[in-house]
Write a structure and sequence with these properties.
By secondary structure, this protein is mainly α. It is globular and about 40 Å long. It starts with a helix and ends with a helix. It has helices at 4-9, 11-24, 28-49, 53-64, 75-79, 85-99, 103-114, 118-142, 148-159, 165-175, 183-192, 200-208. Helix 3 runs antiparallel to helix 7 (103-114).
Length: 211
């Protein structure tokens, strides 16, 4: 199974990056950096939420109905003339649900690493969240996921599975943000530390930002 970062490197992913950049008035390379960090973090948060029966049922319901993947079938319509406010409102709701009180801290970390102000990161994430849900909806259908265990297995596979220990460490640290900004210091070593691991997502992002 291809992972979420493979999506961003595909032609579809490039269309998403360009569309989000155009809709938010943000530099394309910085938008790509934000999405490269944010998508796995959001997916990890969904995986956490889906670990409870209630969370799994809620996510399954969303992916079976509103977020069935159709948003990806008409990206031209999504981005043409700017993303509709209803899409952003939906995205804000998704972010609030899966990140809760950690949302501000997550946005601050990504803001610092991507070199964008937090408000721009927030706007990018509001558009990215419904797209990510649509991608998950398509993956659910393609893999015939019909139970909570199917769903958590799907999310784990898209995150890279158990082999991505370094990725998981980064994601866990970001999601342990308490919203007061201190998480920026906590995860700085993932990118800035001289002896930090250079494998996985952390190493890839560190290289991306020239750290």
């Amino acid at each position: 199974m291809s992972g979420i970062l493979d999506l961003l490197n595909s032609d579809l992913g490039k269309s998403i990056v360009n569309g989000v950049a155009g809709s938010t008035g943000t530099d394309t390379s910085k938008t790509s950096s934000v999405l490269t960090m944010a998508m796995p973090v959001l997916m990890k948060a969904m995986e956490r939420n889906a670990s409870t029966p209630e969370g799994a049922e809620g996510l399954m319901g969303a992916l079976s109905n509103k977020h069935d993947g159709s948003i990806l079938d008409n990206l031209g319509g999504l981005f043409g003339g700017g993303v509709d406010s209803s899409v952003k409102k939906d995205g804000a709701g998704i972010l609030g649900h899966i990140l809760g009180a950690k949302q501000q801290g997550v946005e601050q970390v990504i803001s610092q690493k991507a070199g964008l102000d937090a408000s721009s990161v927030s706007e990018i994430l509001k558009i990215a969240a419904p797209i990510l849900m649509g991608y998950l909806g398509k993956q659910k259908n393609a893999n015939n996921a019909s139970s909570a265990s199917d769903l958590t297995g799907l999310l784990g596979g898209l995150l890279g599975g158990s082999s991505a220990d370094n990725n998981q460490s980064f994601l866990e640290k970001v999601l342990d943000a308490d919203g007061d900004g201190s998480v920026v210091d906590d995860v700085a070593g993932m990118f800035l530390g001289g002896d930090s691991k250079k494998s996985g997502l952390g190493g890839m992002l560190g290289g991306m930002f020239g750290k």
